[in-house]
Amino acid sequence: MSADIWTVMWKEWRELLFQRGSLRGIMLSLLPSVLLFGIILPSQIGHFWVESAMPLGFWGWLPMLPVTVVIADAFAGERERHTLETLLASPLSEQAILFGKVGAVVGYAWVLTLIILLAGLVTVNVIHGNGKLLLYPLIITLGGMIFALLTATLMASIGVIVSLRSATVKQAAQQLAFASLAITWIPLFGFSLLPTALQTSLLESAKSANTTQLFLISIVILAVVDVGLLLVAMTRFKRSRLILD
Questions:
Q1: pTM for this model (two decimals)
Q2: Contact between residue 61 and residue 68 where contact means Cβ atoms under 8 Å apart
Q3: CA–CA gap between residue 143 and residue 157 (Å, rounded)
Q4: Which of 157, 158, 189 is nearest to 175 (CA)?
Q5: Distance of CA 41 to CAs 59, 116, 206, Å?
Q6: Do 69 and 26 touch, CB atoms closer than 8 A?
Q7: What are phi and psi of 39, to 5 degrees?
Q8: 92 DSSP 8-state letter
Q9: C-alpha to C-alpha distances, 131 to 121, 122, 123, 128, nearest whole angstrom
Q10: What is the pLDDT of residues 181-208, one digit of tens each?
Q11: If both were cysteines, with which of 43, 152, 178, 179 could 63 make a disulfide (CB 3.0 to 4.6 Å apart)?
């Protein structure tokens, strides 16, 4: 089945970059992120951008942006272009089609995230390097790559579930934009509503906790959620049901 998954992934990458005519729009929509996280913030923060664990948060959040932009097209776009029936009539298995589409979007978002953070590294070295080579710590680099992969999978899984049930790309994109905002801002808003004493206590606990341990716990939680969402997507992705729709 792995060969079939790669076939679907290659189809998605080829259509995304060369056939849908949306590459320019995608690049323009991501330009603010490149400028902000690849140039402006690193240039202002300086050495701290490289030496601290701060980039980990960006490794986790940045992949959601390109995923949200392109995943709405996964099935709703096929439905609008009247190519969904052809795809479903192919000998490819349901799992190959589903995982191929998810894998293509995750890979695309993951690479873009690496490019943005590499741009930030270059910016810091050019402006604040003073002749020295500044690099992200190895644990931040490896952990961030895993974190980015899992958060991209999280958003892609949600996006596939939404796209499967959306009649148009616009409808799917609107729902995904809301989901992205909810994932990002609801935890922050909920935290702000907590009593000040409890906020202080939680912040102190986070500061005193082992950073590696917290990161590993976050990775495990994300992995479990990703698997759960992919299982939901598998149960909802039924060839016969989609053909009837």
A1: 0.81
A2: no
A3: 21
A4: 158
A5: 14, 12, 24
A6: yes
A7: -130, -60
A8: -
A9: 14, 13, 13, 9
A10: 777 666 666 666 667 776 677 656 655 5
A11: 152
